[in-house]
Amino acid sequence: MNENERSTDASARVKLDSTLVGSRESVSPNQLPESETCLHVQDLSLYYGDKIALKDISMRIPRKRVTALIGPSGCGKSTLIRCFNRMNDLIDSVNIEGRIELNGLEIHDKEVDVSQLRRRVGMVFQRPNPFPKTIYENVAYGLRLSEKLPKSELDDRVEWGLKSAALWDEVQDRLNDSALGLSGGQQQRLVIARAVAVKPSVLLLDEPASALDPISTLKIEELIAQLKADYTIVIVTHNMQQAARVSDYTGFLYLGEMIEFDSTVTIFTNPTEQKTEDYITGRYG
Amino acid sequence: METSEKLPQDFGAFHRQQLGIGLWFKSGDPWIWLTATAVGACIVAVLGLLGLIAVKGLSHFWPSDVVTINYANDFGEFRIAGEIVQRESIGRNQYLEAGSNSTAIETDQVERWMIKSGNRRINAPDFRWVYKHEIVQQLKATDMLVFERSEWGNAYGTLVGIKEHGQSIEPDNPWIELQKRIDRVTDLRDEARRIQKGAINRINYKLEKLRLEKRKRELKGELDFTDIEIERDRLNAEYLVEEQRLRDIITQLERDEIEIRIADGRISTIALRNIIRAWLPNEMSFWQKLGHYFSSIWIFLSQESREANTEGGVFPALFGTVLMVLLMSVLVTPFGVIAALYLREYAKQGPFVQLIRIAVNNLAGVPSIVYGVFGLGFFIYLVGGSLDDLFFQAAQPAPTFGTPGLMWASLTLALLTVPVVIVSTEEGLTRIPSELREGSLALGATKAETMFKIILPMASPSILTGVILAIARAAGEVAPLMLVGVVKLAPTLPIDGNFPFLHLDRKFMHLGFHIYDLGFQSPNVDAARPLVFATAFLLVLIIVALNLTAITLRNRLEARYREALL
Ligand SMILES: Nc1ncnc2c1ncn2[C@@H]1O[C@H](COP(=O)(O)OP(=O)(O)O)[C@@H](O)[C@H]1O
Ligand SMILES: [Mg+2]
Question: Tell me, what's the ipTM?
Fold first, then answer.
């Protein structure tokens, strides 16, 4: 396949996505100055026992932007995103090499308190996982852990969290009902509210909409667009349209390697790597 | 043949005709029948057992009529009055072997009645067989009285006279007068009991404490005990006052006597202080009997036993059983939960943990008496003995904790039941989705915070299931308890008004052991038999009640977490 053909292919895709890919950054994120970098990943390799899952990954995740990670199943997207809040620490067999800096601070340093780190780097999982408590208690959970707030302030923060997650209008009359009575989409927004309530600077979303119906998915995507103003967002997704719709930057992972990381426009319209091209045009994955 | 091959249903019919039984077996129907029969048999057995002990136990409290029977045989003519407690037919041979006159009877079967005739003191034995064919006359006298006595069991007879200070009095209505005087002695008896169990018990307890205090100071080499002696003299003075009050009450109790005529015509004098209740069974209406029935059950539940446990109530045993089971639950729950948490949440899963798990499971199969022996050897002699050496030197050589008692019994049973709590808790922990743990950890919770705020609440239904099983097992256990703390008759309850209120070192009574004691150690088997059934029924009810409470609690919690566990 020569250069010409490739661009034809890509322009076909642009047509498909022309309404979706807005006018967004086109600067390569790896040229980003330190001041605009939120997470700086350097030569990161991760092993599950002897098995290598991430190979020598380097990337700069820009502040207050949405960064999408795409790639076929099992390529290491979740593994990578879980490195950012050190959730992989929970797995005994994991071995990590390389550095990850959050706003210039190495997160693996001995002085770093993991709980503190996780409060600054919130995470939302694929399946909505509200606690079997009331809606109020779910949102207050993280707050009660970290801060000793008086009741009125706690109420305010819960309200603020729910509003940030665009859930307040739907649940304000039943804050003391069980969170398990909410719909799947509402539960996922509740989980986002729970994460947002502790005022993190980064939000990690691991396929947040893959278990939801199309309407709930849309709501989550709208929410991501809103949250971008205040948070650095890293979203793992399976769905390329979704990545194109919501993200400013996209990284393509394949078999544990970061094949290409660039602005979303570039990745979807003019990728450098053949593998990216193949994946985007649906040749595998 | 051809058509039946084409049509499957006809083909089946053909085979049924041909093979009959064989096909029936193949169809699986017998298997369904077999399993259903097994279940049915279990239900019948359980209900039958419960029904038997319920009927036999509960009927004991009913005030049955007292019949007066005249009967005659080779030895003469007799008159007996009492309740018919049993009717049965015996074979002719058995009848003859009993030394009876062969000519008097032609039939193969002889009917005999067991009469509870009471009056054990002057007319023993109180349970007698009467052959039906020997009965000459049988009537129910309306003035026949039954007296429940604090000694010697029931008395049956007609009231002849009431005496005050040995002088006969002539009331207008002797029955009403009798009731009034029984009420009076009941009040006095209660008062005496209050003094004994209250003030005197308290003073004795304090005196004992004082003695130990003095001994402790002696051991330290002190020589001056004036303060203790002053206090002791004060307590002794107080004691004398209370003792005098008690004596006064006893004197008042001695005031009245009654005379009754028993069936054979003799007059018997009974001190009124021994009479607990009196009733006219043949004159009572159904509703009066019902009232009497429930008050008898209440007495059974709320009073202490008398007469080597064959009379009175089972309250101390009931109290001891429930208290011991509750203490056991309080001990076993944290113990089992912590062990399960370690095995499931902290320990590195591997062959060693698996081995421990298997060992724990097998521990549940060790015979309970082995736990009793272990409890006696380890808890009582070793741990208790060491505790005595360290902290209770003053009381020695009398042991404090180095002797069977409530705490060791509860601990032994906790050890016996800890495997079920561990197993059930572990099961609950594995059922909690890992997403919830991760969700909590991702919010910055530590492992311990996640454990207390998410995992333990969600595992609580399973924990309670374990506790339910533990209670079910522990409440019915008797064998190990006989070694580690249960006694036939405990002088005091393990809880009383003396600081520290809960006395873990005391021995206690237990319904299970009470049943054994009544059934096999009793001097008066016939009198004790209905109580064996009543006590057994009570024990079953207690276990059911304890379980139902725990099950209700468990179901509430389960409803709360059900969706999260799906
Ligand atoms: N806990 C684990 N232990 C061992 N291997 C794992 C573990 N989790 C994931 N892996 C492996 O790591 C690779 C990447 O997995 P993951 O990050 O979950 O992929 P993705 O999220 O992109 O689908 C897969 O091959 C997977 O089998
Ligand atoms: Mg994944």
Answer: 0.88
